[in-house]
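Researcher: Next sequence.
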Amino acid sequence: MSIDISGNPITYETGKPSPGSAQNPGLMDFFKNLEGAEFTVTLNTKDWKVEKVEGKDDFVKKLGAGSAQMDGLLKKIMTDDAVKQMADPTYGLIPDQPKAVNEVWEKKVTVGLGPIGSYDVTYKCTYKGKDPTQKTLDRIEVDTSLTYKPPTDSADGLLFKIKSGSMTSKPLTPLQAPSVILYNPERGRIEKATISLHLTGEMMVTIGGTDSKVELTQSQTTTIETSDTPQLTDAQPKTPEKK
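Model: Next structure:
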């Protein structure tokens, strides 16, 4: 992550020295607390819908420790619906009925983040037939577009307020993988999905009565893989509980 605050650049990368940490130790501590976070996602095996995500409360408690404003902000942002959407952005993209090659369908989702604002996300999916390298899997290519909306909720109790802003998705950068879903029709599940997004925009933020323009650029790639065997090195089969 790279941030420029009033001409003071701050860069943070896991496992590397962080220039700017002396100027803003509080922000560095916040970034460090993001590391090591763990969540447990429970899926419905009928349609693979995310039923619940555990670990949110511990995550909020860790990040908001010592700051009532941060604790309040995180609780408004980390809603159950927002966490479910972040846990699996591919849910609902698989159609209920078979599609012809090059047939297109869309799904629209709104993610509300309280005093941060909201995002309208549109997934445009195209069925491309069988994947050329993994011929038993169906290939779906996804074009993701996003539009940001400023908050309408009250920012009372917070150190900042977003007065206005706009953010939209842009074409992928050369370093980003295209968004592709590989679906296993035999098992009725997504075998692998890569969802990429590149955002640019700006916001007008009020801090201590002073308005500041914030320019934002963000690139992210989410990868999901499904396996019949544990993928974690420390994962061990659980012993069935006795009743």
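Model: The first helix runs from residue 25 to 34. Confidence is low (pLDDT under 50) at residues 239-243.
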